[in-house]
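Bit of a strange request maybe. I'm writing a small parser for structure token strings and I need a real example to test against, not something I typed by hand. Could someone generate the tokens for this chain?
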Amino acid sequence: MSEPDVPDSAPRRPPERPPERAPDRDRLLADVAALPGLPGVYRYFDAQGGVLYVGKARNLKKRVSSYFQKDHGGTRIGSMVARIARLETTVVRTEAEALLLENNLIKTLNPKFNILFRDDKSYPYLKITGSRAADGVGAPSAQQFPRVAYFRGAVDKKHRYFGPYPNAWAVKQTIQLIQKVFRLRTCEDTVYNNRSRPCLLYQIQRCSGPCVGLVSKDDYARDVRDAERFLLGEQQEVVDDLQVQMMAWAEALEYEKAAAVRDRIGSLSRVLHQQSMDASSLSATDKDVDVLAVRVAGGRACVNLAMVRGSRHLGDRAHFPTHVDDGAAMSADEADGRADAASPEVAVLEAFIVQHYVGQAVPSQLVLSHAVDPALIDALSETAGVKVRVVHQPREQKRIWLEMAEKGAELALARLLAEEGSQRERTRALVEALDLDIADPDTLRIECFDISHTAGEATQASCVVYEGHAMQSAQYRRFNIEGITGGDDYAAMRQVLARRYAKLAELARLAPEAAPDTAPDPPPPADGDAPAKKPRKGAARLPDLVLVDGGRGQVAMAREVFTELGLDLSLIVGVEKGEGRKVGLEELVFADGREKVYLGHDSAALMLVAQIRDEAHRFAITGMRARRASVRTGGSSLEDIPGVGPRKRARLLQRFGGVRGVAAAGVDDLAGVEGISRELAEEIYRALH
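Reply from user aminoacidic:
Good idea to test on real output. This should exercise your parser:
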């Protein structure tokens, strides 16, 4: 169809030009077009340099290009894509390497659109000390009789470790069982080497008394081997051996010893029954299993990890990620056509597997509530060096474990949502009670200060932070207070407030328009300050409320500091003890001249204030005690010095009147003590200085 004729005299409109793109966007698209078709990891950054997202891809060019070729509209992904200012990529050789690098970057950068789990690798273990060398010739007596102990930290090859366990309670319960059934010692070597008679544990039949020779080395070694076999899942074999021992004692007419073994068999059988074990349904590969169940509701998620070690169900532990909605949307977009990838449960579970297991020991079998990408498991197996089997529709005993984990996840998530709802109500109640000028209670930031010392010694101040309806422990700070009269809490409060807010007040004057989320990082701590943990980026901004633990005197001191710094006095609120210093009778004291306020003992606002105040008090006391101990012992203790046993330690303390006196003594003075050689005196001097 031909176009209509237009008279020559009619004005002609210039052809429409496409809208101009920002140069940064053109540069970004050019970088995307130049990406290779190789496996790797990519990072998206916003204009302020903040990390938006970290992802891995089998084909970088195909994966990254898809973000800019699709019209994501007003979705969460579209919101992120609109904020991308630049990208960085790293090419790797295999998908396993991409998995490792992605995990490390997520933990390091904390991107906004990734599902993030708290990096908590401090799972406890049960340790049997020196059991690998227990039969060595010439070994010290303590090493010939290994002890069972609770352990948390990096493992080594000197001892045997069993676990990990989901919590400390599970370890201690197992230790109690080992004491009751196998009667292994739990005392420290320093105690063991100095016993002259058996302790109470021997009297109540929880230890066989190796410290005073009441059990032979061979018999004790047999008990150690039985305990290890039990922990490794050979429970029935251990029971069979105990029955053989019982019959042997009975045939030898040693009925008391036979009865003791019978009681041990009964204790072990009851434990196995309590663990709901059906040995006939479990194979050799079922001895070490992790059961993972996930639940998502109300914008939050819970992954419940149940651990089975040595065919024993040790308990479970709930994990709660952040950025669930954003991360689930990103994972669904990256699914490459997988039918189940739209499920947020799958996205959360895959994120947990990556962040929890990469770089850590992985059991040979995972029982999952949802099916995950097989490529993820293959990459995990390659990085772990073991073949990891995955089951998401288990049968028999493993089905029971999974149902238990699912119920645990459901209950833990419901409890979390209830607690968060309660915290939101408390925050909203405090905003209303104090008539704070805050449009969104979700952004309320409170900082609370407390002073702690012992009769003026080791004075330390604490600053705790409440934000996002929760205590933010990563932003806590401790301040060592110097240059004041011991016990002067007012001077200590003046010092800590000035040190905390001087630079923030200056930054606020220089850039008053700076938004809270783009504020610069906090200045490095001054000499003597002790940050609790590394603060997160963007945490430095003036709070909406400053709580001080104290009445009119502390508030007056805070008012002086804020007046000198040019800060708003309405931010300061003192928490004054009520009549009889009873909890629930606290009154709030204001620095701007308002009358004191009593919120009521059942007020949700007062509950929040008390919660924050108590946390500041706890944080200050723990810091003060640690500093006081360091000052009193010179940063070390005599017990930690090799070669200083109980007798030499007693002589040193008697000669110099205590650890402080020992620390003040010179090398010649130390060498003058009976039993202290010149070399040992120099070692003691180095350790205490």
